[in-house]
Design brief:
Elements: E1 4-7, H1 13-20, E2 24-26, H2 36-43, E3 48-51, H3 59-64, E4 70-73, H4 83-88, E5 92-94, H5 101-116, H6 119-127, E6 148-152, H7 156-169, E7 172-176, H8 183-189, E8 191-193, H9 196-202, E9 205-208, H10 222-227, E10 233-236, H11 245-253, E11 259-262, E12 281-283, H12 292-312
Parallel strand pairs: 1-2, 1-3, 3-4, 4-5, 6-7, 6-9, 7-8, 9-10, 10-11, 11-12
């Protein structure tokens, strides 16, 4: 008898077909976001689950689903997993790193450009029929080329953004990270390590690419925003909760910083209402990895982890490898 697997959200039909070769699959073609009680009910008898960031896997879920052996996230982030609880329950968690690095870095830079050059503001102005003549200062934004790019969090995606800024736009790249990169990686990115205080005070364009955890909650709040230049822009493609969205809305309204570009939000898909009332912000619905080839690669990696673990006891990207056999 094939093991049973739950696919918690809608996904590519070929992914479902591929998993169905190995497992008895229950999918979610309506793309319903289940409550915790519904998720627990759906997971009954399942050995594996294919999830996205919207499914919280915690001690309560694990205790109610004793047959569960693996949960594969179709995302690089996994703040929807209580990894310690999963390890205690002997349940493997996996994510989907690497395959979205370059696409996400592309989008991060696109969001930086749109924010600096006031693309959203000017489009709204045009669509509203307000454009009647040219003027010398109409939607004059910030320069990007040759300016200082600050990156908070210098993992794979942060390095991708650094390379784009340094090599494509001749930017002076500075960064802060939990640990300094090797000299070889710094040279490849043309990036210089600085303190967080120097990063905040020196960056013309600050991009956040740090993973979310309790320790990184509100890494950028009112105090950090006050350290930034009034002409600076802030881009968040990391996770909601890294930025205090309420404090950011105040800083934008009061022009303490020039503009922001946000792909992630606290409590998403809800957005802090004050962010919807300020014009100097570009808002996108968590789409940094949203190209068809990249989303296919993410789905394939999640499927690879399910197939590898449930058929051979192996996984490509384990988050808690101590639960693997042997």
């Amino acid at each position: 008898m094939k093991p049973k697997v739950l696919i918690a959200r809608a996904v590519f039909p070929e992914t479902i077909a591929r998993l169905s070769l190995h497992f008895e699959v229950e999918s979610n073609p309506d793309d319903t976001i289940w409550t915790k009680a519904q998720l627990i009910q759906k997971l009954q008898g399942k050995a594996g689950a294919f999830t996205t960031g919207s499914e919280r896997i915690d001690a309560e879920v694990l205790a109610a689903c004793p047959q569960l052996k693996i949960v594969a996230n179709m995302a690089v982030g996994y703040n929807n997993f209580d990894v310690d609880a999963m390890t205690a329950a002997g349940v493997l968690g996996t994510n989907a790193p690497d395959v979205l690095t370059e696409t996400t870095a592309d989008f991060g830079f696109a969001l930086l450009m749109a924010t600096a050059r006031r693309v959203t503001e000017s489009e709204h102005y045009l669509r509203a029929g307000l454009w009647t003549k040219w003027s010398y200062d109409m939607f004059a934004g910030a320069e990007v080329h040759g300016r200082t790019l600050g990156i908070l969090g210098m993992g794979r995606i942060g390095q991708g953004i650094a390379r784009r800024g340094a090599h494509g736009f001749g930017m002076n790249v500075i960064y802060h990270n939990r640990s300094q990169l090797s000299p070889a990686l710094e040279a490849a990115c043309k990036a210089r390590y600085v303190s967080k205080e120097e990063l905040l005070g020196s960056a013309d364009h600050l991009v956040l690419v740090v993973p979310y955890s309790a320790a990184s909650h509100h890494t950028v709040g009112a105090a950090e925003l006050a350290r930034m230049k009034p002409t600076a822009t802030l881009v968040n493609i990391a996770r909601g909760g890294i930025v205090d969205d309420a404090a950011l809305a105040v800083a934008l309204r009061d022009k303490r910083i020039a503009a922001a570009g946000l792909d992630v939000f606290e409590g998403e898909p809800k957005v802090h209402p004050d962010l919807l009332t300020v014009p100097n912000v570009v808002l996108t619905p968590h789409i940094a990895s949203a190209t068809i080839p990249t989303r296919r690669a993410m789905a394939n990696l999640a499927a690879d982890n399910l197939i590898g673990f449930l058929t051979e006891g192996k996984a490509l990207t384990p988050l808690n490898p101590q639960v693997l056999p042997g």
